[in-house]
Amino acid sequence: MALRQPLLAAPALASRRRAIPGEDDDYAKARKSLLAEEIDLRRKITRVAEQRRALPPGPLVAADYRFRDAAGADLGLAELFGEHDTLVTYFWMYGPERARPCPMCTNWLGSVNGNANDIKQRVALKVLGRSPVERQQAFAAERGWRALDFVQTVGDDYARDYHLLNKDGTENPALVVYKRNGSGIRLFWKSEMTAEMADPGQDPRDAPDIASLWSILDLTPGGRGTSWYPALEY
């Protein structure tokens, strides 16, 4: 097994930064310090991803959850994998009681739509919702999404078991990743940062942040802002 090369300290790497025309000493010094922090963050993200991949086998999925696809077929969880051994699902907040879907779910799925065909080269990718598939697809057509595969959860056992449906009828979004092998289907990883885990003044979110909206706004002087939210129509 190849030995991992030792990493240079982040400040040493940041010292290789090339000057930008017109910057003064204060900006150059502050930017170099920030660059070292960004390198540390990149390394932290890499370590977390490695730890995620090294998780021990998750629980076997014993329940016979049922789903309905766009063709009207009644499917089990195993049939959502297709030719892959990994299944990535996103449960979005568009239950039958909602007039319109969650704006943040909509925002995120819009960005995933652009990458869906690339993602599906390596894993199966399904969007799960409690609304009928036709209703989910109608909204997808409204947004111009063509690469996402929508699936209806039949009954609410799946949503309840994975803490996606609250007692008051409200929903929680979640990414859930499954792995299958000879022993059956196992949960690999589920996003579990709940609203109760959010830091003061922040919307609940995972880390790293999976929404490109926020990742891009974090690069700007005004940041994410506090007086606006993504819209369903523009």
Structure description:
With 234 residues, the protein is α/β, with parallel strands linked by helices. It has a domain at 66-190: Glutaredoxin (3-Layer(aba) Sandwich), CATH 3.40.30. The protein has seven helices and seven strands, in the order H-H-E-E-E-H-H-E-H-E-H-E-E-H. The longest helix is centred in the first third of the chain and has 29 residues, at 25-53.
Secondary structure blueprint with pairings:
Blueprint: H1 10-14, H2 25-53, E1 66-68, E2 74-76, E3 86-91, H3 103-113, H4 116-119, E4 124-129, H5 133-143, E5 150-154, H6 157-161, E6 174-181, E7 184-190, H7 212-217
Parallel strand pairs: 3-4, 4-5
Antiparallel strand pairs: 1-2, 1-5, 3-6, 6-7
Quick overview:
This protein has helices at 10-14, 25-53, 103-113, 116-119, 133-143, 157-161, 212-217; strands at residues 66-68, 74-76, 86-91, 124-129, 150-154, 174-181, 184-190.
CATH architecture of the domain at 66-190, by name, is: 3-Layer(aba) Sandwich
**How many H/I helices?**
7
Q: Per the principal axes of the C-alpha atoms, what is the gross shape?
A: globular
Helix-strand category: alpha/beta
Q: Low-confidence runs (pLDDT<50, min 5 residues)?
A: none
- The end-to-end span amounts to 54 Å
* Overall number of strands: 7
Radius of gyration: 21 Å
* Biggest sheet overview: 7 strands, mixed
Q: What would CATH call the homologous superfamily of the domain at 66-190? A: Glutaredoxin
Content of β-strand: 15-25%
The helicity comes to 25-40%
Roughly what is the average pLDDT, rounded to an integer?
A: 93
The name of the CATH topology of the domain at 66-190 is: Glutaredoxin
